[in-house]
Structure formats: C-alpha cells, structure tokens
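Table S2 (continued). Query chain:
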Amino acid sequence: MKLLVRPRPFINESLESYMLRLSQENFFEYYQQLSRAIKDWLQLHDHEAAGAFPEELSRLNVYHAAQSSSRRIRALKLVESLTDNEKLPLLHLAVMHSSEKFCSRYSSVFYAGSHVPRALVRQKGIPVCPDCLTEANYIRQEWHWMPYEACINHGKQMLHECPKCEEKLNYTHSECLHTCRCGFDLRNADTEPADEWQLIASRLVVGEPSPSNHPLLDIRSVSLRLACLLWYQLYAYKTLDASNQVPTLTIERAIEYFTHWPEVFTQELEQQAALSGEKLVCDYNKTSFRDVFGNIVGISRLLLKAYPESDFVLTPLENFLARLVDQNPQSRVPNVADLLISMPEAAILLGTSYEQAYRLYEEGYLKCAVKFKSHEKLVNGIGVFYLREIMELRQSRIPVEASSYNNYLPAW
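Corresponding output:
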C-alpha cells in the first residue's frame, strides 16, 4: 500500500485534521475508507500495531490510547512510511500522554513542548474560526484546548455551533473541515467580536507576547498558565464538573480573579483564618489544617516538575502561613498556628520530596503530634505535624542549586 499524495502539514495543525486532509487528497470518499485500508495493511506487517490503530478519527490521537500508547506510536510510525517521498509527520503532530501531574494528581497530555491538563482538553465539540478556515482550510491544534475561546488573529469569538442547523461542531465526528453535516459552509459564518477575557484566555494557550498586563500572561510557561486555570476550578469549586472538565464559566471567572493576584488570594486566606474558630470541633492542636482551609496546600503545587515560576500560587500561600505562625506564637492555649499538617502537605510546604519529608520524620527533625499505637503507621490524609514546626523548619532549609527540591538531609 502506498499513498500517492503527501500534503504539507501546517505547523500548528492537529493530527486528526492532517489525516483527514490526507484521505481527501488521496481520493478516499470517507476517512474510514483510509483507516480500514491502513488497518488491513498493518495486519500484514504488525498485527499488534494493527490492533492499536483505531478506525474512528476521533480516537486516532495517541493520548486516547488507554493501555497501548506505545503500540499506537508504533502503528503511526509504520503509517509514516506509506509514501515514496518524505515520511509523513504524524508523530510530530500527535498529542501524547504525559507523566506530569497538575495540582498534585490531575493528569495531562503533551504537545509542542507544553503539558496541558486533561481537564482543559475539549471532548464534545471543537469550535472553528471562519476567517482562519478561509485563509487555510485546516484545524488548528489550539482549537482543541478549552481556554481558546477567541481567535487572536482576527479578534473574533470562536464558532461553536452551525448557524444553520445549530448542531455542535466537531470535525472528528463529521469528517468535514469547513462544512457542517447539513452542508453549510462554515467559512461564510459571521462571529461576534471577542471579549477581553476571551482574548486573554486564548493568549494563555498560544504563549505569544501580549499587550495585556494580566498577571497570568507574565508567566512564560504555557503549562503553568493552564495549571492556574485548573487550580482556580479546584480552589473555588473543590472539584471538576460532571464531565471531569473545567467549565468555560470558570475560565472567565479565573481570568477576572487573577487580575487582582495575589492580593485577593491573601485576603481570602486571612478571612478563613479569622473565622477558623467557628469551624472547630476540637482544639486547634487536634484539628486538621484541611478542616479549616480545605485542600489548599495539595492543589497549590501546580506541577511536579520544577519551573522558574512553578511557585506562582505556592509562594503567596507560604508567605501567608509564615505570617500566620509569626502572629500566633506558641502558648499554653493552642492557636491557629497549631493546626495539624499531613505528610503530603508537609512535603509540599517544605519544598521537598515525600521521601525526604518521611526521613525528616524518622530521624526526629519532624515531631509527630499524634501518638500511634504499636505497629501503626502514618496515614497520608491525616494531620500529624504542627503547622508552626513545618514553617519553622522551612525557614532553616538548605537550598541545593539546580534541584527540584530542597534538601534537609544528606543522601546517605
């Protein structure tokens, strides 16, 4: 099997868009005709790879593979060799799985050097910009990311529904780049001028310089910009929506919230501290930090890997907690600085790994505030260390250059 025509890919084209153009330019009436032909060819050359190659365009990308992503990559490598000339750029356009975790536990995908939270990847519909389609008939990968609500090139809102039949647009289901299922040419659609927050949200995704002075646009890493949007959803609403995604309304509110960063965040923390006494069932020294402030520490480690600006949220939180401890010195009567911190929270506040934090506990640098029974072990979600001791130890840290974590103890 050989594909006679190899269209030139656009630099920001999605894999699904390129494969759709590939099938059209090689005179396949439907994409599934091409995918079935590829699957039959793979059966002859590598039956394991054939099993990992889906027929549906919507399931093609690598990150959709649940357990066989390596075989999906192998299948795409084989497909790349189906032209006599230069290889197809399939893996270059693909969106991959990522081992990066956002806000301590939320999964991500990887594309063009950036990690994107899975909660910000569009699942049901993919909007288009009619003006962009008029200029070049292909789907841009950034249109797949939820914050991209406005075209930054034309200053107009993205088109989510067909103006004629009002069906939600999704080219991976309709297999049409510039037309709706009903036949309407989307290039003829009119869209409204974009709001300021929509343009800011879209620029967060693209990473281009912007005339706006919004604090999120000062962050150079696209991954961290998107992490902040996920953080706000978890901070304001505690969880994702029913589809495990960040709603568009949350993105709009996040853009407004971070306009006043970090003052608005610090004020809210101070209010929670002032009202902490109303939430107490036991004394402060027997109350978990999470019972008063929620999981604010856990979600504030935006990314596991170290970036120059990775403490965008964590630093204001640490500054607040340091002031809280200074303003509430130890006394006979427990106060808010005596709240109990769990082991994972201690590792985050100390800026070190979980293993290093556990060593600090084992070697006596961290004193446990809870008495355990014989053979009883630490449980991750239970507060066991005093907040004041964690923050005091934090101030005594030994920074190690070019390291993701702070070192408190030698390796051996």
